[in-house]
Model the fold of this input.
Amino acid sequence: MSRILIVEDERGLSGAIKDWLESQFYLVSVVEDGLTALERLSRDTFDAIVLDLMLPGLSGLEVCRRYRDVGGAAPILILTARSTLASKEDGLDCGADDYLVKPCDLRELSARLRAIMRRPASAPIVVFKVSDIELDTNARQVRKSGRIVHLLPKEFLLLEALLMNAGSVLSVERLIDLVWGTNSSLTPDTVRSHMRSLRSKIESERGHGRCLIRTIHGRGYLIERD
Ligand code: CA
Done:
């Protein structure tokens, strides 16, 4: 699952971007200033960073430069109100991958993110397949016996987490970490309710097939390898 860090001090904007990216199945964290961003980037791994330039404390350019200086490799999409050629060049010179001027279209933003996160052409497409279920991590698509299943974002991420760890039991706490992010104050009941909903969409209605997702009492959930 792709983790995105948004560094943006305008809450209305970061909230809108977060909601949009979550609806596209990304796991999103938001920080509001440059120093917190660097601190977060030193602790956690992200697949891409959406970085505002005008930030309190440390500027976005400085965040970008320092992150690259310590070997940070996640692709960076700079987001800023400034539209002059000079600031664009500054951004790209300090190690950013792309540049988007505010106000930006959210579809344009996610298209640019997909482009900068795209793996090299030689890298294999990752498709997890267990029983009659296939999950394509690049297309963000799930198929059951070849037909597309429409999942909500958290259902997709739960299934992805279980498939990536097929053969291992994932505890509810671990699933909360993977799907909702650490520091989440989510209760186990919420996970159970999402799990029920996911199961109703991907498991056979007829009842004679085995359950794809097994509940291991007192330990968590498991998808067996084929
Ligand atoms: Ca700003």
Remarks:
- The mean pLDDT is 87.
- The pocket of calcium ion is lined by residues 9-10, 52, 54-55 (CB under 6 Å).
- The CA atoms of residues 6 and 30 lie 5 Å apart.
